[in-house]
Amino acid sequence: MELLPRSPAEFGSARYWDRFFRQRGQCPFEWYGAFPELCPVLHKYVRPRDKVLVVGCGNSELSEQMYDVGMCEDIVNIDISDAVIRQMQERNGSKRPKMSYLLMDMLQMDFPDAHFQVVLDKGTLDAVLTNEEEATLAKVDKMFAEISRVLQVGGRYLCVSLAQAHVLKKAVEYFSQEGWVVRVHQVAGSGDKQQFVLPVFVYVMTKFRKIPGSAPQILEICPEEQDKPMRVESAERLVAAVKDRQHYALLCSQLSKTPCREQVSLDLCDKESGKPRYTLHVVDSPSVKPSRDNHFAIFIIPQGRETEWLFGTEEGRRQLAASAGFGRLVTVALHREQHYEDMAGIQAELSGKVMELAPPGLPARQQVPFLSVGGDIGVRTVRHHDTSPLSGEYVVEDVKGDGTCYFRRLIFLRNRNVVQSEARLLAPTPPPGQKKRRKEKKKPNPAEPPAAIDKSYLCCEHHKAMVAGLCLLGGPDPLPALLAVLVVGLGGGSLPLFVHDYFSQAHVAVVEIDSSMLEVATRWFGFSQGDRMRVHVSDGLDYVAKLAAEVSALPPAAPAQYDAIMFDVDSKDLTVGMSCPPPAFVEKPFLQKVKTILKPEGVFVLNLVCRDARLKESVLATLREVFPLLYARRIEGEVNEILFCQPSSEGRRDPTELGTRARALERALRQPGRPWDSSYVLADMLQAVKIL
């Protein structure tokens, strides 16, 4: 039996609907939205004494169900199909005497002005507005004008719809321009995965007298899980908010039917602010053999640890899911702008929502475990939040790491999952000779991190590798008597501070383009300047070019300026597949200037973070053109690759010699009374070095 129209235009044809309902017979046809799902929304806007008009009623049971439950009895139903009107009159007759069915075109109604308090439309607008052709839009304008005419001021037009973007946009723009209040409800439970994937929405347009001039639009959305509406500033934002909910419903439907081959990421937003509160990643492990108890689990990442490799990368999350032994693991990252009470509170807040992401085959009433590290949600304290004209919005925060250690981090919020700089914090110690009486002894507060910076500890593995690269400097002595170092990129200052403190004869010049970062490093990361440490607030490109010009003007016999040059500078352009350094820093003319200011036996150390394989190969080729000797050290579990570049191939050293020099340098750096991180072994940093 062919019930679908040959073309969308037939949706507006009385002949088509007559044929449709004759073929369908007495069986009610509901486009979408069963009465139990719609009832909570309709109950808010339909009062028992209201006079209700249902346009395009068809043979839906909605009016009958509203009548039978006592929601409203004075209901007038209209349709252009004579067949369905006669059918519905016969079906109701004396059963519902206060409800009527009339043959009438909603584009030209016979009712007087302001005759109804409610106009109800279930799928009719969707059927009429099938395209955005001029004739269709004109028909919809006529429909809206008639609805507006027969509604009283304060009356409501309730439109049940799938909210296709062009349908919602048309309705919102028309009625908001008329001065009406527009609210969109998502119908709870309407995204039935087995019956209908797309969620159903109810537009609630409340009629107000049009105020001359430009009155502010009132546009709101009311998600299914809350009663309180959220205000949005434009029709475009309202359409976008609805589209997000539609995409989420489609995603949940897909995840409920098939395992996901790629990791799926989504944000759950705070109801009040609309800002992300949780970031979820759905990770399936095909290798895990399913049993009753290992289908599905939720893993709460402790605050501040979402940037770690295990939690912050696809490969890490895949390893986490496999080691946890669940077929599907949903990892949950907590956002720094939000407040969380405890694990129980998070579990209560998420339990309903995460079940929408359950895998296929999950047994009914299966209890889903919530997992974490150590059973707590971690500690995060935001110490400083500001905006830099160059780096954008940033935060300095203290977080609790694995165990009892605390760390201070600098995060640029434009790339919030990347730690820009990090330092370990020292546990407070009482002054020498000071003793506390037993009764005054206080237990340490786990939520209050210490404040002093541990300058002996390099948190970043790539910084450890960069320092180890100084073993490549020429000469028999592993620790040069004099060492001139140029560092481009300050961040929190950990790298130049370590070189300054442990290479006692080193003179360190730091170039930083952003003066805000100098303030951050000084105030929050223990950085300070002195006779052997100077910071130049300048663009690194300009600074190096100026030095190169000065060196070129000197006599040929004059020595170049630096023993070591280190680039650890991030790119502000996130559209490029290389986040460190900016592309201009690895162009051949600039690299030749770097070589000009580097001593012949010196080393140029570059932190390269490049996800674009072709771009990376191009960078390496350019480096080889300028520097005859090139070593590379991959940082395990990270994208970083540290490149050691030397102006002459004569200083080439094999791995054995590098290890010997590294051990000698480490012995020289480990001075009595000076703290040294026992996990930092210079020779280990150079074990995996490859000559390119």
TrEMBL record:
SUPFAM superfamilies: S-adenosyl-L-methionine-dependent methyltransferases. GO terms for cellular component: cytoplasm. Residues 50-171 form the Methyltransferase domain. CDD domains: AdoMet_MTases. Keywords: Methyltransferase, Multifunctional enzyme, Transferase. Residues 423-450 are annotated as: Disordered. It comes from the Eukaryota. The keyword Cytoplasm does not apply. It holds the Pfam family Spermine_synth. Belongs to the methyltransferase superfamily. This is eEF1A lysine and N-terminal methyltransferase.
